[in-house]
Amino acid sequence: MAKRIEDFKIEENRRLNNDIFILEISGNSYFPSLKPGQFAQVKVEGSPETFLRRPISIHDIDYERNTIKMLMQIAGKGTEKLSNLKKGETLNIIYPLGNSFSLPAENSQVLLIGGGCGVAPLMFLGKYLKSKGYKPEILLGFRNSNRIIEYDEYSGIGPVYLTTEDGSKGEKGFVTDHTVLKDRHFDHICCCGPESMMKAVAGYCFKNQITCEVSLEHLMACGFGVCLCCVVDTVKGNLCTCVDGPVFNTKELKW
Ligand SMILES: Cc1cc2nc3c(=O)[nH]c(=O)nc-3n(C[C@H](O)[C@H](O)[C@H](O)COP(=O)(O)OP(=O)(O)OC[C@H]3O[C@@H](n4cnc5c(N)ncnc54)[C@H](O)[C@@H]3O)c2cc1C
Ligand code: FES
């Protein structure tokens, strides 16, 4: 798919908590057809220390309003700067980049698992699967109840199961401790979050013969297969997370 470099206008910058915010941006031209799991390379203007673009997932898309949402966590200087963007300012992005989550087999029981800010690509994915006739369910894990984001929005897609590490909301523990994984069978799990969480989910899927796809958040520089800084070791050899991923079937990863 052709890549575009485009200036978008900030429509809204909404804080969800101390360090997580959503940028809603609007484009001048109609979007190409975007797929869940794809990302954009976002330019941080006026910041020589962060001259490399930052990879950020497509969180949600509204084709009628011609807007894209990006959910971001402040991790360092780049995302801090982006968190200060104001309505009407410009954001330059290269998109769409990377592959996407695959469509599960027909009638599959699908579970989306997200941890912390790793819920970012799952909103678009959940809505997309629902529009294709699937009934995705969602399992979200957070550190504590103050860190929970977008519970109501995910509830609009399907049943939401929740864990918090301190038990302040939902079941206590990690996503892999949730009873839904013991009581129910799923055919297809899509997961995004901290690598330790994705590895635990991959282990659960391997034991239970469930198809598992994860979205890797490796460090990236170019975002389109030139610099080789995002290489991941797979059963097919070294692959670039930015062009061959970020979504991988965990059977392919040497974890
Ligand atoms: C395909 C892809 C999609 C992503 N989608 C999102 C998203 O939707 N929302 C979001 O908030 N973040 C997302 N990330 C992570 C995001 O790109 C980094 O947090 C961001 O680049 C950090 O930039 P910074 O200048 O703020 O921090 P830096 O100063 O560059 O780094 C701060 C800290 O974050 C770590 N870090 C830097 N880049 C990454 C990375 N790619 N993954 C994990 N840790 C990193 C650094 O090692 C350092 O410890 C995604 C990453 C990838 C590869
Ligand atoms: S980020 Fe440059 S090759 Fe992947």
Task: Kindly summarize this structure in a few lines.
With 255 residues, the protein is of the alpha/beta class. The chain has helices at 77-83, 120-131, 151-155, 180-183, 195-207, and strands at 4-15, 20-26, 39-42, 54-57, 60-62, 67-73, 90-97, 110-115, 137-142, 160-164, 171-172, 188-192, 211-215, 231-234, 237-240, 247-249.
Largest sheet: 7 strands, antiparallel
Oligomer: single chain
Q: Helical percent range? A: 10-25%
**Rg measurement, Å:** 18 Å
pLDDT below 50 for ≥5 consecutive residues: which ranges?
none
What are the secondary-structure elements, in order, as H or E? EEEEEEHEEHEHEEHEHEEEE
Report on the structure:
The structure is a single chain. The chain has helices spanning 77-83, 120-131, 151-155, 180-183, 195-207; strands at 4-15, 20-26, 39-42, 54-57, 60-62, 67-73, 90-97, 110-115, 137-142, 160-164, 171-172, 188-192, 211-215, 231-234, 237-240, 247-249. A seven-stranded antiparallel β-sheet has the order 4-3-7-1-2-6-5. Strands 11-10-9-8-12-13-16 form a seven-stranded mixed β-sheet, sandwiched between helices. A two-stranded antiparallel sheet has the order 14-15. It has 255 residues and is an alpha/beta fold. The longest helix is centred in the last third of the chain and has 13 residues, at 195-207. Flavin-adenine dinucleotide binds at residues 39, 50, 54-57, 71-73, 75-79, 117, 120, 217-220, 246.
